[in-house]
Please model this.
Amino acid sequence: MARYYYVCRENLYAMKSFWLCIFLSLSLGLQAQFQQIKKIGIEDGLSNSFIMGITQDKNGFLWFSTESGLNRFDGESFRIYKKANANSPNSVSANEQNVVYADRYENKIWLATQREGLNSFDCETEQFKYYRNDPKDDSSLPTNDVTNIVNSRDSNLWVTTYHNGFAYFDKKTEKFTRFNQATLPSLASNTIWSIAEAEDGTIYLGHENAGFSIYDPKTGTTKNFRNDPNDPNSLPGNKINTILIDKDSNIWLGTDNGLALFNKQSEKFTVLRHKPGDSNSLVGNFVFSIIQRKNGQLWIGTENGGISILNTTKYVHVSPQDTKFINIMSGFDVFSLSNQTVHCIYEDQFENVWIGTYGGGVLFNTWTYYPNPEVTNRLSNKVACGICSDEKGRIWVGTDGGGIDVFENAKKIRSLNKSNSGLTDNAVLAAFRDSRNNLWFGTWAGGVSIRRSNSY
Model:
């Protein structure tokens, strides 16, 4: 049985209930449906409405890189990091940014800036560190215009640049190994926007105007693919903005002239494009972003089009004429985007989708809950206010009058309230897990209840 401790402190809370309510996601297995799209803009504290990247750290904070500052969002308010007059561990090296990336192996955030190098942010110490090009040091960052960052299979980093190829960064030695036309003569171009590493170590690269390259580290050679106007199965465009290797090892490319699926065996491309008059075709041909959600869907962000959603199966055999997309476009109602250019898309740990637009701020989807008594996974109360996870990955949902419901693997495994536990009040408005894995629940009239780690 879970043990709870009463803390008499009126003003202790983790997040206000409004934001926690709207973050409730389908991962809990509740009866829900897509309801509306919410916007967060400058008027809500965002530093800039041109969003370049989105990620989430291991503490649950969301991060937004923009054309003017880095933003950390706690569900209620923003903390903005801007460049200081001098190098400071509490500021970014540049306000003009590209992607922001959460390290999969450490509690760190990595920031690609447009002209001032690579930044790291330690989420424990809350200190920044800068990595810049040193012309006298060949093991330094190749150039200061960083375009993309991803983890390598061995927990280090791959970093791409606009003017000097890509690099492997060893986090322990803090040395960069450079791959450019000087060190790798077969590389088609030094201007690279996107990178992905396959399970076998193969590196896939997307260039600015030189197509798609594959680097084989075993042989040290590259192969390049470009558009051939006479071949419908060639790469559709030579500007590759994004590369996604999906859960089934399919390789998707977002180009300036459509979405492409690369066949590794035939080395041909299946091309999906917008068809005027066809509402089920790709919404726009200039593809900025591709993600795969936990449910398998591909979400594709485009320039001047909006978002296309594609349901994939384990074995993808896409026929362009048979492919149907679900499209979300700009409009004036709550079901539409506020801006038709979608630069980045991100799914958080609760399966909410965050949309970064170029000029329209941040958008995110919300879900509504219907209290159906026939649904076994239903909440004890139709209003969910505080959500957190425990050290075992179970989801604890505080409700407005029904106590706490605990979910594991999309199934409700327990309901806790005043009558069957030490919970002090059934109206649970906030939930928070601390660094020692204790769970804190802020209630309406019963103060704070604490569930000690490993007590249930």
